[in-house]
Amino acid sequence: MKKLTFITLDDNIIEDIKPFAFEGLPAVKVININRNNIKKLKPSMVHALTSLNKLCLINSNVEIVEPETFTDLDAMVELHFGNNQIVALEDEMFLDLPFLEALILSHNRIQTLKMDIYI
User: Fold this and answer.
1) The CATH number of domain 1-119 is 3.30.750.200
2) Could you tell me the pLDDT band of residue 72, with boundaries at 50, 70 and 90?
């Protein structure tokens, strides 16, 4: 599975993604986990995916994005978190994503937006 580049887990009943769940898949570029029930995104969820450039968790009931969830994802270009329940984003949440081009947070419950979530 070292050549696997695309993972789709849409329309399941996933509630949790364990740390390092995708470890050993260095070629994965896209992960779609849409329409699930993942309340919390945790650090190390997608750790070691150095080629990952697109992550989609749309309509998955995400409420909390823990700090350092996106650490060491240098290839990340697109994050799609629309239609969730996110209320707040931690300071410097996207600091470790130097090539991020698209950040989609539409249809959440974000109450305050600070400039330092991404710089």
Assistant:
1) no
2) confident
